Amino acid sequence: MPRQRWRTRTTSPERSRVWWIGMLAGVLLAASCTGGAGTSAPSEGSAPGFPVSVQQEYGTAQLSAPPRRVVALMPTDLDIVIALGITPVAAFRDQFGQDGVPPWLAGRLDREKTKLVDLNNLSIEQLAALRPDVILGGGPSLQPYRERLSQIAPLVGYEQGYNVDSWQQRVTTLGKVLGVPDRARQLLAETEKAVETAKSRFSALAGKTYTYTFAYTVDRMATIGDERNHTTQFLRQFGIAPAPAVAKLEVGSAGSAVSQEMLGLLDADLVLVGYPGADSRKALEAHPLFQQLNAVRRGTYLGIDINVTSALQHPTVANIPWLIERLSPAFEKAAAG
C-alpha cells in the first residue's frame, strides 16, 4: 500500500530552500534503496477518524492516515507514545536517564527498534533516512529545525504553546494524531484516577502550603509559584497551594530567583527542593539558614533528584504514577503535620 500522504500548512507560507530540497531528495532516495520498508500506513480514507487536522504552533498539520513510523523529539511526547503502545523509530535521548531513557520508561522502550537522538546535536539527515510519517515536538528547542523537519513529515507541535498545553490536552491530541483516541481516553482516565486516589489518601493536605525550588547552587536558585506552571497545577490537584511569600515573588523565565539570604521565604508545610547533583544538595542542606526552616526541622522537607524534578515539571500519563509514588512519603509527613 502507498505510504501516507501528508502536507503541513503554516499561517504564513515560507519558501523552502533549494539546497535543502536537493539534499532531502538525495537522502530519501538513498533510504528507499537501502533502508527497510517499515510498516505502511493504511491508504487514505481507510481508517476511522482520518484525515486528521491539528491546529498548532506551526500552523495546521494534516495526516491522511494513522502514522506508522513515529518520531518523538520531546520527552513528554516520548512518554505518551510509549504509554499508547507505540514504538517510535526515533526519540529524544534523556541525558539523565540510564541508557538514555528516564526511569519511568525503563524496560518499556525497545532500543533495537528506536534510535535515540540528541537535540543538542540533531542530525536532520539521519531523521530523514528513517522515513517518518509524523514528527512530534515543538517549543524553543526545535525552532531552529522547524522548516527542515516539516519537509520530512508533518510536524505536530503544541496547540497553545510550549509549557502551556496541559498533560491532559497533549495525550488527547496525540491520541487523535496517532489514530488511537480510545486508548488515549483510557490512559487519561487511569491517570486521573491515580491522582484522585492519592488525593483521597492524603486528604489532610487540603489547605496546606508548599514551596518547590530548584537549587543549581546555593547562590543560584529558582522557586516556582506561578499558577500557570505545570508543577503548580499538578501539586494543586492534591489540595496544597504555593506559600504566599513565594507566590508574591517576581516571576522570570525560569521561575523566581532566590538568593541564599532569602532562604527563609522557602518555608512551608511541605518544602521540595530539586538538585542537579549531590554537591549542590550537600551545600544547601549544610547552610545554616536552610537548617532553620521549620519544614527541615520537622521532617517535611524532601530533596529530589533530577529525574523526579523532570517529572514534576513535565507531568505525563507515563510518569505521574511513578511521581506520586516518590512524593508519597513527603505527602504523608506533611499531611500528618
From TrEMBL:
Its main location: other. Residues 69-335 form the Fe/B12 periplasmic-binding domain. InterPro entries: ABC_transptr_periplasmic_BD, Bact_iron-sidero_bind. It is found in: Cell envelope. Keywords: Signal, Transport. GO terms for cellular component: outer membrane-bounded periplasmic space. SUPFAM superfamilies: Helical backbone' metal receptor. GO terms for biological process: iron coordination entity transport. Belongs to the bacterial solute-binding protein 8 family. This is Iron complex transport system substrate-binding protein.
